[in-house]
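Aim 2, interim progress. The first record below pairs a target sequence with its C-alpha cells.
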Amino acid sequence: MTAVQAGTAGTPGPTPPAGRYGPGADARADRRLRIAAVVAGVLVAAGVGWYGYATLSGDKVSAQVVAFEAVSDQEVQIHLEVHKGEDAVTVCTLRSVDADHNEVGRKDVRIDRHAKQVDTVVTVRTTARGETGELLGCSTPSGS
C-alpha cells in the first residue's frame, strides 16, 4: 500500500501551510491541554483545601431544644442543650408561637458557662399562650 502525500496529484485542492497541521501542531495542542489541566487541578485542590479548613476550624456551635412546656398564658419554658467550645460565649435566639403560627415571644440567651455542653431551662415571656418553643439559631458574637 502506498501513502499519498498532501498536494500530490491524487488529492484535490492546495497544499496546507507548513506547520499548521501535522506532528508539530498536535504537540503544541497537547502541551496547552496539559498546562490547562494542571492549572485546573491546582485550583480544584486549593478550593477543596480551603473548604476543608473553613469547615473544620473555628468554634462551631450546635444546639437543640430538648423539651418545652407552656407554663401559663404568659410563659413558655424551653429546655435547651448547647454544644460549643469550652471557653466560647454563645448567643441563642429562642421563640414561641401560638396556635395560629404568630410569634408571641422571643428571647436571646447568652451562654457563657465554661463547659463544652450546657443544659439550661429558659423562660420565654409571651403575649399570648405559646404552643411551641423553638430554637432559631445560635452564634458566637464577634468580639467575644
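The second target in this work package is listed in the same format:
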Amino acid sequence: MRQASIRAAVAAVALLPLLGGCVIYSNEGGERKININSADAVAETEALEAVRKVDFDGQKLTVVVGSNGCTEASSFEVKIKDTDPAELSLIRRAPDLCKAIVREGVAVSWTYAELGLNTGQHVRVLNPVSL
C-alpha cells in the first residue's frame, strides 16, 4: 500500500513540468486550441525582441538590443503598422548563437527611408524594454 502511494506521488511530480506549460485559448471562430508546450504558443505568435534603448532623431531609428556578438540590423524583421503614430515591432529572425556576450548590447539602425517612413514621422515601438 505504501509503495503504491510513493509511486503515485513520483508520477504526479514527473507530470508537473508538462502541466505547467499547458496553454488553452480560443480564436474568433470559437475554435479552442490546446498547446501542451508553452514554447509552441510562443512560436505561433511572434515574440518581440526586448530592447534596451530606442532613439529616433527624425531621420533614423537606433535600437540597442542584447547580443552574443553576431547581432546586426539584418538579424531583425521590422514590421510597421500604418497608424498615427506608426507602430513598429522588431522580431529577431534567428537567435544570436555566437559566444562573445556583449554586456552593453549592440546598436542597430535603420533610416526612415529604409523603413518606409516619412522624415520626422511619429513612431511608437511596441517591443518591451529591458534595462
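Helices lie at 2-20, 38-44, 112-115. This observation will shape the mutagenesis plan for the next reporting period.
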